[in-house]
């Protein structure tokens, strides 16, 4: 049976069932990756101490930028890919896939090599001091050299999901997560090694995930075939334009991390940076869950948009927005009632670090009440090619408004108000989106969602 003879769930299944088909694997995979990051933090904090944990956190933006590069061309290319598949243009879709993967691999190799030349000033620019710089540099330099493995694995996962195999994409994430935990446990507790080897463990785990994803290319259901291509500047510009909001979202994570590290270092010293590193690890868990929701929405919306199925888009968005609200409310409750045990699992830190981190979780988690909805709305506009609106949502919530609140509220209300910059930004953006949609008479399909 050839691919053309197989029923396409995007065309035959009910919206609710289709959404769950993509949502559950995306959430499971992303949550396992998030737990993997948290376990990494727990092991580093307990085995190597708070200064090493702070150093890894400071180097985190390099990891995030590499994720951003893979998402930029990965999501951009995959959006074009799914739209082409919705129009039944399978040959064009293969060209888009091949072109995107080549650009991602070559691009990250070049960027990593250039950044490695300036690694020392880069570490201090990210917020390191004499205590944390050795740990941050050791972790960062490994990613600058071998980060292309991670970007290829991440981009391949996006394309496999867009090619109708979200379960395999989840399996690859599961493989990466469990292998990373196992490898890093051996590195820290058996071999008694340090931060540099932890970074190598993460790269090895990503390679194993890439091996799992490669099995999709040999199945009959796969349209992901490498074909001969020439550099296409128009296609590159389209992929970069469509994927830019996802890249900007990752840049926003780096801006968030660096700006909060600097602000806490200025107002609370190393204690503040250590407390923030704990909250940041927990935030990674929650953030990847919301990213999983976006990963579930994007392939479906892109396909429906290419196929001009406007009513199906409306039904999907109504369901996705409700899911975003419910997930955000659950995360908020977790933060309010489980802050103390969450902080305690990261190690036996000084009491002042624990108290600041507990307060931080309870205040910071207010953002999750609306963050999921903002992610879903941004993904929708990106998936239909309304890049300007998607970019505005991303820049507003993660960079512009966040920095505005970060640079004003703490000086008015004190150090604890640093935790409120993200909640204030998220709530403000959702209000502005609502006003914009009402005034612009924009519909998610043929009828309003709200």
From TrEMBL:
<keyword id="KW-0046">Antibiotic resistance</keyword>
<dbReference type="GO" id="GO:0005886">
    <property type="term" value="C:plasma membrane"/>
</dbReference>
<feature type="transmembrane region" description="Helical">
    <location>
        <begin position="359"/>
        <end position="377"/>
    </location>
</feature>
<feature type="transmembrane region" description="Helical">
    <location>
        <begin position="278"/>
        <end position="304"/>
    </location>
</feature>
<dbReference type="InterPro" id="IPR002528">
    <property type="entry name" value="MATE_fam"/>
</dbReference>
<keyword id="KW-1003">Cell membrane</keyword>
<feature type="transmembrane region" description="Helical">
    <location>
        <begin position="389"/>
        <end position="412"/>
    </location>
</feature>
<keyword id="KW-0812">Transmembrane</keyword>
<protein>
    <recommendedName>
        <fullName>Multidrug export protein MepA</fullName>
    </recommendedName>
</protein>
<feature type="transmembrane region" description="Helical">
    <location>
        <begin position="20"/>
        <end position="39"/>
    </location>
</feature>
<dbReference type="GO" id="GO:0015297">
    <property type="term" value="F:antiporter activity"/>
</dbReference>
<dbReference type="GO" id="GO:0046677">
    <property type="term" value="P:response to antibiotic"/>
</dbReference>
<dbReference type="GO" id="GO:0042910">
    <property type="term" value="F:xenobiotic transmembrane transporter activity"/>
</dbReference>
<feature type="transmembrane region" description="Helical">
    <location>
        <begin position="167"/>
        <end position="191"/>
    </location>
</feature>
<dbReference type="InterPro" id="IPR045070">
    <property type="entry name" value="MATE_MepA-like"/>
</dbReference>
<feature type="transmembrane region" description="Helical">
    <location>
        <begin position="197"/>
        <end position="218"/>
    </location>
</feature>
<dbReference type="Pfam" id="PF01554">
    <property type="entry name" value="MatE"/>
</dbReference>
<feature type="transmembrane region" description="Helical">
    <location>
        <begin position="138"/>
        <end position="160"/>
    </location>
</feature>
<feature type="transmembrane region" description="Helical">
    <location>
        <begin position="325"/>
        <end position="347"/>
    </location>
</feature>
<feature type="transmembrane region" description="Helical">
    <location>
        <begin position="239"/>
        <end position="258"/>
    </location>
</feature>
<keyword id="KW-0813">Transport</keyword>
<comment type="similarity">
    <text>Belongs to the multi antimicrobial extrusion (MATE) (TC 2.A.66.1) family. MepA subfamily.</text>
</comment>
<keyword id="KW-1133">Transmembrane helix</keyword>
<dbReference type="InterPro" id="IPR048279">
    <property type="entry name" value="MdtK-like"/>
</dbReference>
<dbReference type="InterPro" id="IPR051327">
    <property type="entry name" value="MATE_MepA_subfamily"/>
</dbReference>
<feature type="transmembrane region" description="Helical">
    <location>
        <begin position="51"/>
        <end position="75"/>
    </location>
</feature>
<feature type="transmembrane region" description="Helical">
    <location>
        <begin position="418"/>
        <end position="437"/>
    </location>
</feature>
<feature type="transmembrane region" description="Helical">
    <location>
        <begin position="96"/>
        <end position="118"/>
    </location>
</feature>
<keyword id="KW-0472">Membrane</keyword>
């Amino acid at each position: 049976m050839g691919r053309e003879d197989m029923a396409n769930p995007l065309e035959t299944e009910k919206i609710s069932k289709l959404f769950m088909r993509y949502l559950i694997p995306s959430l499971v995979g992303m949550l396992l990756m998030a737990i993997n990051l948290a376990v990494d933090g727990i092991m580093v904090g307990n085995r190597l101490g708070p200064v090493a944990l702070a150093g890894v956190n400071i180097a985190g933006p390099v990891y995030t930028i590499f994720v951003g590069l893979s998402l930029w061309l990965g999501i951009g290319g995959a959006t074009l890919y799914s739209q082409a598949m919705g129009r039944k243009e399978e040959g064009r879709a293969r060209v888009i896939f091949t072109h995107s993967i080549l650009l991602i691999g070559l691009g990250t190799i070049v960027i990593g090599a250039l950044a490695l030349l300036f690694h020392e000033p880069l570490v201090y620019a990210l917020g390191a001091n004499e205590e944390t710089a050795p740990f941050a540099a050791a972790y960062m330099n490994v990613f600058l050299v071998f980060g292309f493995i991670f970007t290829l694995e991440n981009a391949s996962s996006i394309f496999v999901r867009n090619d109708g195999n979200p379960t395999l994409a989840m399996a690859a994430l599961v493989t990466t997560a469990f292998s990373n935990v196992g490898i890093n446990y051996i590195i820290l507790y058996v071999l008694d090694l340090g931060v540099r080897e932890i970074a190598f463990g993460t790269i090895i785990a990503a390679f194993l995930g890439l091996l799992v994803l490669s099995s999709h290319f040999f199945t009959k259901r796969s349209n992901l075939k490498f074909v001969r291509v020439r550099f296409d500047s128009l296609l590159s510009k389209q992929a970069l334009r469509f994927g830019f909001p996802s890249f900007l979202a990752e840049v926003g994570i780096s801006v968030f991390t660096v700006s909060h590290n600097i602000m806490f270092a200025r107002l609370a010293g190393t204690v503040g940076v250590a407390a923030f590193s704990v909250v940041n690890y927990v935030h990674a868990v929650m953030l990847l869950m919301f990213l999983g929701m976006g990963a579930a929405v994007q392939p479906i919306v892109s396909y429906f948009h290419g196929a001009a199925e406007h009513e199906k888009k409306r039904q999907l968005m109504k369901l996705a927005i409700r899911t975003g609200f419910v997930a955000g409310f659950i995360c908020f409750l977790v933060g309010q009632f489980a802050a103390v045990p969450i902080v305690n699992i990261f190690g036996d830190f000084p009491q002042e670090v624990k108290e600041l981190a507990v307060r931080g979780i309870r205040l910071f988690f207010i953002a999750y009440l609306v963050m999921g909805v903002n992610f879903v709305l941004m993904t929708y506009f990106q998936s239909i090619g309304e890049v300007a609106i998607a970019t505005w949502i991303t820049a507003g919530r993660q960079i512009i408004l966040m920095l505005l609140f970060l640079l004003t509220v703490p000086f008015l209300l004190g150090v604890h108000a640093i935790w409120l910059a993200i909640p204030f930004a998220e709530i403000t953006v959702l209000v502005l989106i609502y006003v914009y949609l009402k005034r612009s008479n924009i519909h998610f399909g043929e009828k309003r969602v709200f």
